[in-house]
Design a protein that fits this description.
Blueprint: H1 11-16, E1 30-34, E2 38-44, E3 53-58, E4 61-68, E5 88-95, E6 106-110, E7 113-119
Antiparallel strand pairs: 1-2, 2-7, 3-4, 4-5, 6-7
C-alpha cells in the first residue's frame, strides 16, 4: 500500500486563488541594510522612469513617490483578456530621524532599482545641553 499525502482540496481556492482574482500588491518591495556609517535602502521599481520618481524628507520621514503613466493601449489587433501590469502612483515612507536632511541622502536609479544611502546622524548631538532648574530654600 502506498501512502499519498492528502492536500487540502478547496475548489474555491483553486479557482479564485489565482492572482487574476486577487488585488495586486502594489507596495514597493524594499530591502534595508545597515552599514557602519548609515543605511542603504534598495527599492524595486521595475518599469518606472527616473524622472517619474520623487524623493523628499519632511519632518524626519523619507517619502518615495513613483508614478507610471498608462499609455494608450488601443490596439486594432485584439482586446486584452488579462492585464497584470500596474499603471498609476505608489508611495512609501520611512522614518529616518529629524536630523537627516535631503542633502545628506545619496540616490541612484539603475536597472529598475532605486538605491538610497542614508547616513547615521546622532540626533542627540543636535539637542541643547540639558539644564536643570535650581530649587531655592
Amino acid at each position: 500500500m502506498m501512502m499519498i499525502p492528502r492536500s487540502n482540496f478547496d475548489l474555491f481556492d483553486d479557482i479564485f486563488g489565482d492572482s487574476f482574482f486577487k488585488k495586486e500588491d502594489k507596495m514597493m518591495k524594499t530591502d534595508i541594510r545597515e552599514t557602519d556609517n548609515g543605511y542603504i535602502i534598495d527599492v524595486d521599481l521595475p518599469g518606472y522612469k527616473k524622472e517619474n520618481i520623487k524623493i523628499d524628507v519632511t519632518d524626519g520621514y523619507l517619502t518615495i513617490n513613483a508614478k507610471m503613466n498608462q499609455k494608450n493601449t488601443e490596439d486594432n489587433n485584439g482586446k486584452y483578456v488579462r492585464r497584470e501590469r500596474f499603471f498609476g502612483e505608489c508611495s512609501r515612507s520611512f522614518y529616518v530621524g529629524e536630523a537627516v536632511e535631503d542633502l545628506d541622502i545619496k540616490a541612484k536609479f539603475q536597472n529598475g532599482i532605486l538605491s538610497l544611502e542614508i547616513p547615521k546622524i546622532d540626533e542627540r548631538k543636535n539637542l541643547p545641553e540639558k539644564k536643570y532648574i535650581e530649587i531655592s530654600d
